[in-house]
Design a protein that fits this description.
seven-stranded mixed beta sheet, 8 helices, 7 strands
């Protein structure tokens, strides 16, 4: 496949992720950002433009940015400052993070606001992330400072799933489908845990051994992400295929 075809396919998948996030109620006004690397080193990447509603994003709307370009924020079409801070630094410093999804879905964000934001393994979905996420305990407010971006990138280099205290969640993956699937399952897992907390009853928490075994068991189901994402894209197409344009 040519580089142009690769970019076109990536644009379609990333546009689908935005549309689907809006459909699931995971968008935040016209904020939050998803990005995907175009270059081998990750420094040239696609991202949504400043303040465009997820539900309106089309493949052609996505902006090409260069993490090494010092003039990015001085241009008329500059991205959102917090997006440039998080995604720019992460793509520059963590080339393995090909796709970066940052969002504030209600259950995951509520979990991030707890004094103990651990995702306790109480079912298969919560155990999916056992030993596979990091917690950023430092909230610096709106993430728009270089030192904050560098610190967040350092955490993403350690783990593909980051619970950001008082903020939200960020996921990295090799593909858009896998990043979106992690967002999908994390939000379900966080909601399950919060409902269990709300019951007021003692939690039946898995042992570390069982939780670790369950997390490893999910590895055999990696293909689910692509089948699920293809199905979700077909739902978008049935409504209005113009998002691909």
């Amino acid at each position: 496949m040519s580089a142009a075809a690769d970019e076109a396919a990536l644009r379609v998948d990333l546009a689908a992720a935005f549309r689907l996030a809006a459909r699931f109620g995971w968008s935040e006004s016209v904020g939050n950002h998803f990005s995907a690397a175009l270059s081998a080193d990750g420094r040239r990447f696609l991202m949504n433009r400043k303040w465009q509603a997820f539900a309106s994003i089309r493949a052609s709307d996505l902006q090409v940015l260069d993490a090494d370009d010092p003039d990015t924020m001085t241009r008329a079409d500059a991205p959102d400052a917090s997006a440039w801070c998080i995604h720019g630094h992460a793509h520059r410093l963590v080339p393995a993070a090909r796709v970066i999804v940052h969002a504030h879905p209600i259950a995951a964000t509520t979990l991030s606001a707890l004094a103990d934001p651990r995702l306790l393994p109480i079912d298969q979905n919560t155990a999916r992330f056992f030993g596979r996420y990091a917690i950023d305990p430092e909230c610096g407010g709106i993430a728009d400072q270089d030192d904050e971006g560098v610190r967040i990138a350092g955490l993403l280099a350690q783990s593909p799933t980051l619970i950001m205290a008082n903020h939200g969640v960020t996921f990295t993956a090799q593909t858009v489908a896998e990043a979106f699937e992690n967002l999908y399952f994390f939000e379900k897992a966080a909601e399950t845990l919060l409902r269990a907390f709300a019951s007021g009853q003692p939690l039946q928490v898995m042992s570390d051994a069982v939780a670790r075994h369950t997390a490893q068991g999910w590895d055999a189901y990696r293909g689910m992400a692509f089948a699920h994402f293809d199905h979700l894209k077909s739902l978008l197409d049935a409504d209005d295929p113009s998002w691909r344009g």
